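Internal ticket #5521
Category: modeling
Description: The requester needs a full-assembly model to guide mutagenesis choices. All entity lines are attached below as received. Residue total reported by intake: 1324.
Assigned to: D.W.
Attached entities:
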Amino acid sequence: MIRIAVLGAGRIGKIHASNVAASLNAKVADPVEASAKALAVRLGCDATTDCSAAIDRDDVDAIVIGTPTDTHITYMLQAVRKGKAVLCEKPIDLDMLKSTEAATEVERLNGRVMLAFNRRFDPTSQAFRKAIDAGEIGDIRQVIISSRDPGMPPRDYVLHSGGIFRDMVIHDLDTARWLLGEEPVEVMAMGNRLIDSSLAELNDFDTIMVQMRTASGKQCHINCCREAVYGYDQRFEVSGSKGMLLQDNLRPSTIRRWTAETTDAREPLLNFFLERYVDAYKNELEAFVDAIKNNAPMPTTVRDGLEALRLAECALQSALTGKPVQVSSLA
Amino acid sequence: MIRIAVLGAGRIGKIHASNVAASLNAKVADPVEASAKALAVRLGCDATTDCSAAIDRDDVDAIVIGTPTDTHITYMLQAVRKGKAVLCEKPIDLDMLKSTEAATEVERLNGRVMLAFNRRFDPTSQAFRKAIDAGEIGDIRQVIISSRDPGMPPRDYVLHSGGIFRDMVIHDLDTARWLLGEEPVEVMAMGNRLIDSSLAELNDFDTIMVQMRTASGKQCHINCCREAVYGYDQRFEVSGSKGMLLQDNLRPSTIRRWTAETTDAREPLLNFFLERYVDAYKNELEAFVDAIKNNAPMPTTVRDGLEALRLAECALQSALTGKPVQVSSLA
Amino acid sequence: MIRIAVLGAGRIGKIHASNVAASLNAKVADPVEASAKALAVRLGCDATTDCSAAIDRDDVDAIVIGTPTDTHITYMLQAVRKGKAVLCEKPIDLDMLKSTEAATEVERLNGRVMLAFNRRFDPTSQAFRKAIDAGEIGDIRQVIISSRDPGMPPRDYVLHSGGIFRDMVIHDLDTARWLLGEEPVEVMAMGNRLIDSSLAELNDFDTIMVQMRTASGKQCHINCCREAVYGYDQRFEVSGSKGMLLQDNLRPSTIRRWTAETTDAREPLLNFFLERYVDAYKNELEAFVDAIKNNAPMPTTVRDGLEALRLAECALQSALTGKPVQVSSLA
Amino acid sequence: MIRIAVLGAGRIGKIHASNVAASLNAKVADPVEASAKALAVRLGCDATTDCSAAIDRDDVDAIVIGTPTDTHITYMLQAVRKGKAVLCEKPIDLDMLKSTEAATEVERLNGRVMLAFNRRFDPTSQAFRKAIDAGEIGDIRQVIISSRDPGMPPRDYVLHSGGIFRDMVIHDLDTARWLLGEEPVEVMAMGNRLIDSSLAELNDFDTIMVQMRTASGKQCHINCCREAVYGYDQRFEVSGSKGMLLQDNLRPSTIRRWTAETTDAREPLLNFFLERYVDAYKNELEAFVDAIKNNAPMPTTVRDGLEALRLAECALQSALTGKPVQVSSLA
């Protein structure tokens, strides 16, 4: 049995720890003692406030990093050097240079690091991958991704998020890379502040559009907004020479309502990512454990984390300057 | 060009006359002079109050009967004897015996009479027929028909309607025969008064269910209600050994609404049959004219009208007695 | 913590035991030693082949009965007499008389028995209940239930199933009672053999329709078939004076396909009840445990099991005799 | 009664002429005598080969221009100078300068010219307008338009089309202006050749993406492709502070198919614009006639035609240079 230590007992750490606890040997580490203990009690496992010590323990085979972003690289490299497998939340770091160095170091050490792009493990995403790989839609032409959060995050979160591109759009940029099957070479982005004009002080935006293309001319559009009254909107579509695939949203149930005002109305969307991607998080952890057990390549790599961040940097730069950015210019 | 006289300038006559006028040589006849004239002026054609004379005119090749039910047989037989083709609104008559005699007489005279079961000519119904005939769903097993009116008709209408089975359910019984491709042999019906309890005085109902089976064991369920706040509900489904076909409702547009309360909500249904079956009425008239031009068999016959009425009688009898009725007992 | 013994390590026992194991203190009992051990090892809990002894254990608070139908009453009464809460799979027994005696005895002893009508605990069913109770659709008028299995069960299963009405339709009859909120008083059923004509030897059917009404005139239709090539079809709708609610099917993902042949096509349905009702089984067990913890009434009772069986008997008798059956005649 | 002369008896002229003929006094003019006569015979109206003479006729009140693009301005100005109302197919002209001069001249003369942006008159578009104007979705934030043709047009058509931006995307640019309710100020476009690489010779593309923003920061994305195997794809969505509206595609019928492979599959889309926008063309002509009768402002103006063309020019320039284009730079 793989023995896993989960670093970070916050929102995302709780998800990972619960999934670990269901069938694996879990430990929980969080500098905040109360958080670590509360979660450990719930899961019936050990708790510690020393994340670094948890990585070093002999009875730990793999590490899940759900701590604040600025600690990712430290723990990742420590774990890799100890020969332990790592599942690390995105992004690697908010700084492109540090991220590049970290990725290079992980690769030099043949470290086994998986970047937690949870959406790739959603059942519908998996169905997309399978259908595209089976040639169902032929050669891909256009990818359209719509991604909206239910509401603005707290100001404090925004301050440390790295901005909408590095924090939120990065998921969609990873999805884009994954669906396109080819690296984007050019990025054009627009950012506006339609909800909170004070974001200007942070050079941040609440409403953005990105369009990108690959060397062979495949195109991708992404639209994101920090707020949607109808809930956490997660749709994408891929069209190709033989057809199109669409991803619809999930809802809490399949009930449909017919009244004098509307017909066939569906329920509001699942509120946010913890609810929407419940199965994706489970599948993600399972994929991580399977890769360890089978000594197989990680399904997503530190390089994936770096490339998504690079696209986020390009998009941010484009939105700030109003000019297209060649991806190669950030190499 | 086929020259057509439309008898009856009421609700249904107007529809037929408009469809005739668009491309054919129309005349309008209605005992109420004002009605006849008003419609004729609108269509730029002749008007008369003498329906019988209109049938006899030399410059009339075919007759569309949209007059009150108790005049259907008279005009139908007059026209047949004059060698003219007839499109007659359903039912033949509210009386089973009279209807049987009329149908027998029409058949004896090789009369060319089409019964106006408009729903068979709806584009979705036509798509069903084509798919079933192509063997898409294999051998038919179960047919489910849901059919609800937007609101109770006026008392006066109910009084002369012959009751819910002869007036409303007859359409669904015809649809059932058409979809099953085999005659029902047994009918079980339930009638209740959930909207207007005073219908008891008329031995009538506002909410009914029917189930029937054919000799080979195919089953059919029909549910009807005189009122649905969400509009004129017209759905059916056919399941077979290889699959299932569903008919969804139509709406005025394809707009879908997403709000904080619901998502993907569609518009209310088209209000009633004149709006819902606009294309069906056009196609019906076209099929009638095509049959005349090509000297081909009528797509629906007076026999179809009789068999649908027979099923309505069986259902009514079953609902009143609480017992199943063998269709052969009404032969 | 509630300590639960699961009797029966077969298909349904496995589901319950897994749900128990996730958060509760489980034991597994099955007369077949290999089955009991295999499941216990998987869950890391105790195993025994003596179901009766498992009921009596001091460290067991509640019993889940997933053994063959003809043992349900014995174990249920033993547990009730020991003062233990019981979650019992449907039906109570295939025999109406024995079931009635058992239900009466449970009630005399104030036994705490929950009948496992899993579908009531499906998220969409729960959403229905909530919407109906909130008055969203006003007074209920018609309930339509469509319920089809993906394929014919093995002959051996059919032989011991009690027939389609007691085995399969009983779920829909329970759903009908639950949605109607009022007892049906009259039942008309039709049974046919469109898939396997040899079922005639067993007085059984593969394709059925039922229609029922309550004392106040609410109507319900049920259609079932032992086979549907497109998968396990589970839909229902309830219409009332203010609107209608529909339950759509679930699918493995929300992918939709657009090709030259079809558009917006969804995936095949989840294969069968274990996949379709995964959440319902979890919620069911949780509701059972909550009722125990809070000393609250069981959400479904042995009386519910009896009434659903009574309707199944009525429907079977109606299908065999071709006559409507008054529910009171089976009291 | 308004008396209308339809110039051009080609594909689009036929549509307009048929709609005119149904209720108005039509004349048909086309330099190709056979075309003019064929259509006139079908509609039972006069034919001529002299478009200019048709404009001048005393018994003509209004002109519908469906002739080749390079004749639009000539006929438009002739008609305006004669004081006649004009419904002119888009674009005004392929040349921005000539178009600007023509628009200015029409405005100087207070000419009554309606530009035929048919999609604005589609029932779903009208429902959008109404919902937006009613404040249903609050302040608009993002508009997403997907627009794909069923297949590549013939080479000869492409040669004279002005390219994908002026010929095809112009419709979507007009839709964007109409939905946004505010002029775009910046345009970024990407064009690729994924279907026909030889389009490079013409500086044309087959697959494009455009993103634009307005002065207040509203954003719009458009994706177009000259080919989609699943048919003529016409969707758009508008999200705002209070909700979102989607436009789904239309299909020939509402049939849905369930088989072992897929469930709930809908039919292929209507083949192309003549089928898809049948109602839109009727409504468009009706709106034109209503504006004449009521002496009301034209619902779309020559200025609308000019602004849509300006955006097409901006998009083309952006796609060719790889740089964003400020709309004001083309003023």
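Resolution: model delivered.
Comment from assignee: The first strand of chain B starts at residue 3 and ends at 7.
Ticket closed.
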